[in-house]
């Protein structure tokens, strides 16, 4: 038995010849400090350019790319859009988006199950951010890992397709708690699914103490109105802050909500669920 | 398995602390992990030897303490322990609680081996 700490590993702390002692240093630092710093850097880039950045997350096949295609068809004429595509392999999704005439950067992660802020930083530099209104980041299809990595986005949207079942928020609480909006997709399949209840999804989100809105739609048959309105509200919010910055100490003169007093409209109370 | 990239990040941070203290190697790394951090303790345990290979943390012991999920209820002004997928107040059933613990992912401390030429740093 180890004489130093009493564990079962023999002599694992045996000092080497050039060592005198082992001492403990308190650190108390978040394990994601490196990614969080890169995400802050991304967010500063995005804020300077005045665009809205939306991180789309879901399990594989929930309809992220299809949603983007439908969104581009609806908003492409009015807003300058771009997409960063994350996939383990293939450029298939990027090709689909490019076919709609929208600039797209593909990140192939190889075996990595999520995008991180550094990957997004490299991809963002391949885009003319100043010439954009909304940038979508289509994360790797996965309801677990992407939740743990801030990319510098302004909002996270989790798609839940009806064939997956309405209890996903309870099974993947970390992911759904990190969501600013839950989008129930493939509602055109509801007539053949007897066990999916959209109201139950909202109820499960409340169980997670989340105030994120739950919207239901079909990218195929529509209507997309609520989703498009949510995006436009988000963009207006970004623009208001960029074009009318509140000077520190100037708050007494403001009639609109300043950055220290965000309005209730867009992200609700869960804009930054991570302390 | 994002635990591998988190382990790499952890080792980068721990190695920086070791370098700041002029220590040649790391003997123990202590973490605090909440169930709502999205990190599996068992996967961290498997990833750590892979990520620490050829670093000052190679051979170090990884100790992980899990912290409970705790919420504060603004309605009954109480704190309580909750479950990962039910954060409603167990006292009054109010759903708009605030999470006050259980999503931590913290590097708490590292144990460093001092080289004989270095003065011994007394534990604080």
Automatic annotation (TrEMBL), chain B:
Ni(2+) binds at residue 2. The keyword tRNA processing does not apply. Coiled coil: none annotated. Keywords: Metal-binding, Nickel, Zinc. Pfam families: HypA (PF01155). One of its GO terms (biological process) is protein maturation. InterPro entries: Hydgase_Ni_incorp_HypA/HybF_CS (IPR020538), HypA/HybF (IPR000688). GO terms for molecular function: nickel cation binding; zinc ion binding. Zn(2+) binds at residues 73, 76, 89, 92. Involved in the maturation of [NiFe] hydrogenases. Required for nickel insertion into the metal center of the hydrogenase. HAMAP family: HypA_HybF (MF_00213). Belongs to the HypA/HybF family. This is Hydrogenase maturation factor HypA. It comes from Halomonas urmiana. The gene is hypA.
């Amino acid at each position: 038995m180890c004489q130093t700490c009493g564990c079962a590993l023999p002599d694992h702390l045996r000092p080497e010849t050039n060592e005198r002692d082992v001492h403990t240093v308190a650190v108390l630092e978040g394990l994601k400090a490196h990614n969080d710093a890169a995400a802050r850097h991304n967010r500063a880039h995005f804020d300077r350019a005045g665009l809205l950045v939306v991180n789309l997350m879901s399990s594989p096949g929930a309809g992220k790319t299809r949603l983007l295609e439908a969104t581009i068809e609806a908003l492409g004429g009015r807003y300058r859009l771009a997409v960063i595509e994350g996939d383990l392999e293939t450029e298939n999704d990027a090709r689909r988006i490019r076919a709609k005439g929208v600039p797209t950067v593909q990140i192939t992660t190889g075996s990595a199950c999520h995008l991180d802020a550094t990957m997004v930083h490299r991809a963002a530099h391949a885009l003319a951010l100043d010439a954009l209104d909304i940038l979508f980041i289509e994360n790797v299809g996965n309801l677990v890992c992407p939740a743990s990595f801030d990319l510098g986005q302004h909002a996270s949207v989790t798609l839940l397709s009806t064939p997956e079942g309405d209890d996903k928020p309870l099974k993947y609480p970390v992911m759904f708690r990190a969501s600013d909006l839950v989008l129930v997709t493939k509602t055109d399949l509801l007539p053949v699914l007897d066990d999916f209840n959209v109201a139950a999804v909202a109820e499960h989100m409340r169980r997670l103490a989340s105030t994120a809105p739950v919207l239901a739609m079909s990218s195929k048959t529509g209507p997309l109105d609520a989703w498009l309105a949510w995006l436009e509200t988000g963009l207006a919010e970004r623009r208001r802050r960029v074009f009318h910055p509140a000077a520190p100490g100037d708050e007494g003169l403001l009639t609109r909500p300043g950055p220290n007093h965000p309005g209730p409209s867009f992200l609700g109370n869960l804009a930054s669920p991570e302390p | 398995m994002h635990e591998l990239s988190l382990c790499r990040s952890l080792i980068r941070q721990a190695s920086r602390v070791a370098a700041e203290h002029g220590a040649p190697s790391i003997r123990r790394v202590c973490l605090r992990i909440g169930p709502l951090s999205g990190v599996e303790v068992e996967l961290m345990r498997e990833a750590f030897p892979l990520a620490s290979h050829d670093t000052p943390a190679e051979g170090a012991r990884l100790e992980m303490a899990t912290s409970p999920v705790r919420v504060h209820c603004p309605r009954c002004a109480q704190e309580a322990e909750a479950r990962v997928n039910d954060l409603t107040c167990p006292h009054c059933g109010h759903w708009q609680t605030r999470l006050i613990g259980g999503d931590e992912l913290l590097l708490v401390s590292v144990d460093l081996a001092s080289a004989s030429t270095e003065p011994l740093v007394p534990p604080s």
